[in-house]
Amino acid sequence: MRARGLSKHFGSLKAVDDLDLTVHRRQVYGFLGPNGSGKSTSIRMLCGLLTPTAGEIEVLGLAIPQQAEVLRQHIGYMTQQFSLFTDLTVRENLEFLAAVQNMPAKKARSRVDELLTEYHFEGRANQLAGTMSGGQKQRLALAGAIIHKPELLFLDEPTSAVDPESRRDFWEKLFELTDAGTTILVSTHYMDEAERCHRLAILDRGRLVADGSPAELTGDLDGSTLLVETDRQRQAKRALLPIPGVISAAQIGNSLRVLIDGERVDQHQIEEVLAREGLDARVGPVTPSLEDVFVAVTHQQARSDALAKESGP
C-alpha cells in the first residue's frame, strides 16, 4: 500500500494533511493518535470509501478510488462499533457475510465451520449475536471481516470497547493472520497496542509526525527522558514545568517522568533547579517509551505550527 500527498478537507478543516505512507506486505502497520487526528479518515480513503481532496493512493496494485470496487473483493474492514446483526445468530451472521462475498454454498459452509472452530464459537453457533459479551462480539466481527480470506485487513480502533484480556487474545489472532500472509493496518490510541505493531505512524491533527518501528521511534529519543525520584513529586513538577526545554513531567507512582528537549536543557540543569527548591531528588536517564515519543513529536509539531503562525503574513 502506498499513498503520496494524501489530503482530505471538510470545508476549512484539514482532516488529513499531505500524508505520505508506505505499508509492506505481511506487516501489522499501526496508526497511533488521539481522536480527531485523522486515523479513521485516512483508513476510509485507503480502502476506497472516501474520495481524497488531493493525493495518490495505490493499494494491492490498484489505483484508489478509481478501482475501489475491485479492491473490495480483496480487503476486509472492521470498525470500532459492532456492525453485524444483533438479531441473527453467530452462524447466520457468518453465512450472510459469505453470501455478500458471493461464496459458493459448499465453500461457504466449510469456511463458516472453519471460523466457528478457529474463533472458539463451537458452542455458540446458534446464540444471538446481540447477547454476547464485548470480547465475543469483537471476535465475531473479526471472523466476519476475514471470511473471504482478504489479502489486506483494515481495522479502525477495533478494541476500544473490550477488556485487556480480550485485547490480548485479539492481537494473537492478528499475528496468526500476518503469519498466514495477510497485511493489516490498524488504528489505535492504546500505547501497549502500538508497541505490538511492526511499524507505526503517529498522526496529529491530520499530519504524519513520526513513522518507523517502535524500536526506531524510541531510539530517536535516547537521552531525552529523565526519571526524577523524590517524595515531593508535585512540588518537583511545579518547579520543572516552567523550564524552557522541559516538554512534560508526568507523575508515575513515586517518581516523575520528565521529557526534555536535549538542545535546550540537560540533566545537570534539572538537578540544579531541584536543589534550589530544596528538594532531595535523584535524577537519571530512563529508557524512552512510545508515550514519550508521542508527547515529543506532537509537541514539536505544535511548536513548529506556532512559529509558522508567528512568522506568517
Automatic annotation (TrEMBL):
Q: Which UniProt keywords apply?
A: ATP-binding, Nucleotide-binding
Q: Among its keywords, does the record have Nucleotide-binding?
A: yes
Q: Which domain of life is it from?
A: Bacteria
| Residues covered by the ABC transporter domain | 1-230
The record's PROSITE patterns line, in alphabetical order, gives:
ABC_TRANSPORTER_1, ABC_TRANSPORTER_2
Q: What single Pfam family name could you report for this chain, choosing any that match?
A: ABC_tran
List the Gene3D superfamilies hit by this protein, alphabetically.
P-loop containing nucleotide triphosphate hydrolases (3.40.50.300)
GO molecular function list:
ATP binding
Q: List the protein's name.
A: ATP-binding cassette domain-containing protein
Q: Which organism is it from?
A: Microbulbifer hydrolyticus
Lineage per the UniProt record: Bacteria, Pseudomonadati, Pseudomonadota, Gammaproteobacteria, Cellvibrionales
